[in-house]
Structures are given as structure tokens and as C-alpha cells.
Prior knowledge:
Largest sheet: 5 strands, mixed
Oligomer: single chain
Order of helices and strands: EHEHEHHEEHHHH
Amino acid sequence: MARIGYARVSTTDQNLETQINKLKAEGCEVVRSEKVSGASREGRSELATVLDFLRPGDELVVTRLDRLGRSTRDVLNLVHECEQKGAHVTVLDPHVTTRGEMGHLVITVLGMVAQMERRFIKERQREGIEKAKAKGVYQGAKQRIDRTAILDLYAKGIGAAAIAKEVCCSRMQAYRILNEIKASDRSR
């Protein structure tokens, strides 16, 4: 029987160290961690690795339930998958485990709270953006892809696939940016 820890933060500028230390202090022999949103399971390769690794009698340990997921359905599906493998889930804060029926009830309620919290966060974010727009200070999200480089490469006659490779983005992103640039040029 192994205790396997899973730590997650949503953004790259957040720190995993506190979660990892708590999981190790709880006796987790293996701790997997990642910096990715908990809104869905998409792109959470470390979580997939943990789920693949679980054996009967193992325990998946997380510091808080929202580290496992932000959707009640997703959390319950993860708990179900663990149980199908004969493993169980333990949350450290508040301390609850799926070893008993009461634990299932508490995890369901905590999952619902995590989902509500995500909705509240999104609502506050939307309100903040609206206020910033009203003040004229909202500049939108930071662009992750160098649009000028894409435009320069396109002007040199380089195709979208080669551009995508050059600027390290998907071909679809390159096409989307090129189409946005063309549309804004037409509207001028």
C-alpha cells in the first residue's frame, strides 16, 4: 500500500512547495505535481500518471479537494476511478477520506463548494474587468504569441505550418492570428 501525493497550482507563477512539503510530511512516498488549471482534466498529465500508477490498497492524497478538481462531477469521477482500482482518496484540509460512507458525503459537498468557488472567482474576475474597462485601463490578457514575428514571417512568404514551428505555437493558432491580422487590415 502506497501513499501517493498529488499537488497542483493553476499558474506558473504560483508555488507548489507548500503542498509538496505537506504531502511528504504525511508520508507520501511519491509526490507528483503540475502547474495547470483544475477546471478540467485536460492537460493534467501528472494526474493521469498517478491514476495509472494506483494499485489496490493505495491512497491518493491531496492537500485540499480543489487541488484535485474544481468541478463536482470531475472530483466524483476521479474518486470513482480510484475506487475502481481498489484505492481511496484522502484530503488533508479538512481531513476526510473515502474509506467510509461519511467521507463520500463530505467529498461530494466539498466538490460542490469548490465548483461554487470557481464560479465566484470567475464572476469577480468579470466584474473587475468591467470596472477596468469603464475606467479605460483594461488592456486585456497578455499576448503569449509574438504576432509581429508571425506577420513578418508571413510577409516573407512563409506558410502557416512553418510559422507555427518557428514561433512555437500550433498551426491553428498561426492561422487564427493571420486571419485576425487580415480582418483588421480590411476594416481599416
